[in-house]
Amino acid sequence: MSASEMNSVQASDTEQQVLLSLKSISKTYTTGDVEVPVLHHVDLDIYAREFLVIVGPSGSGKSTLLNIVGGIDLPTEGDVYFHEKNVSEFNEQQLTRYRREHIGFVFQFYNLVPTLTARENVIVAADISADPMSPDDALELVGLSSRANHFPAQLSGGEQQRVAIARALVKQPELLLCDEPTGALDLTTGRKILGVLANLNRELGKTVVIITHNSAIGQMAQRVVRIGSGTIAEAKPNPHPIAAEQVTW
């Protein structure tokens, strides 16, 4: 897709506020004398309060793209603007603050501390946040109040993922970045997790970005971006998003 086509897609809804903008992002990893290009001149706007799904096969560059959006990694070329501030020029201290104050991460594997309860896992994130919500409120928002005092080993996979979402949410981030959040779950549990994310977008106005290999999840997005071989092949709005419980794969 050409830059002009991308711009026309991104500007299709002029009433939406751009929260984050990627400008000609490229990423190359170097191992010894070997260079491995992963992203090639990617342009993408992420709008405030949108539910965006980025779909691509393994090796397409989607996780690298998410890491750059989240300030975990920096581009080799190009710029990342968040509220018009150039994140790609941030130093390590500024990147840490950016991640801590503005970004919530949800990954395929839950990465919970096994010796802490669900509430305590959420408290860990709250304690390093500038303006956290109550950990109990975060657990309530994901429907897990009754399991707050249980340890990860006492929780199902879906419940552990909801704890991980509460841990990301307690920081009150503007942007929730979800890397294959249903990848380790069965269909029924995956639908529940997608429903939680959709509710956070709808009820709290959180911007939610999901990256996945599963194109079926795009059916519930407000906009779907397809990535392949490190470039954006397609980006278009979804005029008729379906509910999470209707998604099937």
From TrEMBL:
InterPro entries listed in its UniProt record: AAA+_ATPase (IPR003593), ABC_transporter-like_ATP-bd (IPR003439), ABC_transporter-like_CS (IPR017871), MacB-like_ATP-bd (IPR017911), P-loop_NTPase (IPR027417)
Superkingdom of source: Bacteria
Keyword Nucleotide-binding: yes
GO MF term (any one): ATP binding
Gene Ontology, cellular component aspect: membrane protein complex
Keyword check for Cell inner membrane: no
Keywords noted in UniProt: ATP-binding, Nucleotide-binding, Transport
UniProt xrefs under PANTHER family: ABC TRANSPORTER ATP-BINDING PROTEIN MG467-RELATED, LIPOPROTEIN-RELEASING SYSTEM ATP-BINDING PROTEIN LOLD
Family, per entry: Belongs to the ABC transporter superfamily. Macrolide exporter (TC 3.A.1.122) family.
Protein name, per record: Putative ABC transporter ATP-binding protein
Organism: Gimesia panareensis
Organism lineage: Bacteria, Pseudomonadati, Planctomycetota, Planctomycetia, Planctomycetales
